[in-house]
């Protein structure tokens, strides 16, 4: 039996040199909504939410950390399997078309079951993203 009970994903944090630019990308491309963000003083932070309960915390990169600001991979086909966050959309085909119209380089794939489609791409900081298809319930 697991030590923790009632576990659920709370948030993912991304460190960036341009918090506002990255927030705008997630709001415009994936529909995240800006939510109240505590003042941490000394560095910029923006919290975003994707209802019902997923949050993304964008945190200004510490210039003393030595972390690279340039992505190490630029080709979505070469996105490492362990380096991405996956979201799902019910309008997959039109979503992919909108990415392409925005000039976002993508790599599309379909699972052998023929049902699930996937598109891989990067945010402006080079963080890997996957968006997969899902069928919205019929009303």
TrEMBL record:
Residues 8-134 form the VOC domain. This is VOC domain-containing protein. It comes from the Eukaryota. It comes from Dioscorea zingiberensis. Coiled coil: none annotated. Pfam families: Glyoxalase. InterPro entries: Glyas_Bleomycin-R_OHBP_Dase, Glyas_Fos-R_dOase_dom, VOC_core.
């Amino acid at each position: 039996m697991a030590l923790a009970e009632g576990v659920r994903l709370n948030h993912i944090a991304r460190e960036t040199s341009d918090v506002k630019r990255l927030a705008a990308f997630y709001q415009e491309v994936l529909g995240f909504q800006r939510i109240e963000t505590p003042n941490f003083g000394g560095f910029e932070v923006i919290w975003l939410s994707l209802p019902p309960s997923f949050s993304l915390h964008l945190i200004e990169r510490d210039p003393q950390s030595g972390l690279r600001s340039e992505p190490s991979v630029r080709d979505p086909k070469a996105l490492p399997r362990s380096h991405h966050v996956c979201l799902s959309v019910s309008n997959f085909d039109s979503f992919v078309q909108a990415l392409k119209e925005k000039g976002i380089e993508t790599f599309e794939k379909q699972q052998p079951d023929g049902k699930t489609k996937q598109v891989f791409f990067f945010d402006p900081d080079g963080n890997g993203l996957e968006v997969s298809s899902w069928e919205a319930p019929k009303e």
